[in-house]
Amino acid sequence: MSALAIHWLDLDDAFPDVDEALSHDSDAPGLLAAGGDLEPPRLRRAYASGIFPWYGPGQPILWWSPDPRMVLHTAEFKLSRSLRKTLRHFRQDPGCEVRIDTAFPQVIRACASTPRAGQSGTWIVPDMVDAYAAWHRLGDVHSFETWVDDELVGGLYGICLGRMFFGESMFAWQTDASKIAMAALVSFCRSHGIDMIDCQQRTGHLSSLGAREIPRTAFLEHVRRAVQAPGPSTWAFEPSLWDTLDPLKLQGAACASVSSSGPPA
């Protein structure tokens, strides 16, 4: 395959082998194919094969499988001193809570509209919003939401197939609100036997939370096992799940909530 050659998918076409994705020294490392559709059956096949869509306005659907792959092993989540303090305050404030799947449309729209450093636009184009909303209604896509005084202030969304969670995007309208949602996701995953969260591509923010790159072969091996395992039967966040992070140091009394000033997390 040349540096510029990728597969074009018609509606009935299967994905090519991920080994045919463009190499790291190309102009688009990890790009595998273009075209196809965003219907839930194709999306499910894509994620179960280590492939995800990512494209901008005016582009065809582009499918990616980068090597290496950025992942967060849930056992390696970094709970910094400041985040531990924030979570302790959050847990003890009766006005603060984490909810799952109560405001998915708001979460994905917020992710699509939140400015990103180094990006002039969004990859969560309207067709992607519609596609993942449809997939959410089928039960594979979930939102983890940070609420303060009954107001949504941050969150994230992603896909769960079996015991594999594929993170997509996050947003914060108050300081640390997305980190709280991420910590809640890790807590939920640990309590349900989900060992790995796909983060797709490397960012400094994800690295600070403990994510790291692994070879695509290792990622695919894990995904193929995990998607076959039984996944969570109930999607609800119980406060006791926080104990999976740090049973002792998240205890204690405090009454401050998430700060309403400062840059998004």
Main pleated sheet: 7 strands, mixed
The portion of residues assigned to helices is 25-40%
N-end to C-end Cα span: 40 Å
Rg computed from alpha carbons, rounded to a whole number of angstroms: 18 Å
Query: Would you count the extended β strands for me?
Result: 11
Q: Kindly state the mean pLDDT as a whole number?
A: 91
Instruction: Briefly note the CATH topology name of the largest domain.
Output: Aminopeptidase
Question: What is the molecular shape?
Answer: globular
CATH architecture descriptor name of the largest domain: 3-Layer(aba) Sandwich
Taken as a percent bin, the fraction of beta residues is 15-25%
The count of domains is 2
Low-confidence residue ranges: 252-265
SS-based structural class? alpha+beta
Order of helices and strands: EEHEEEHEHHEEEHEHEH
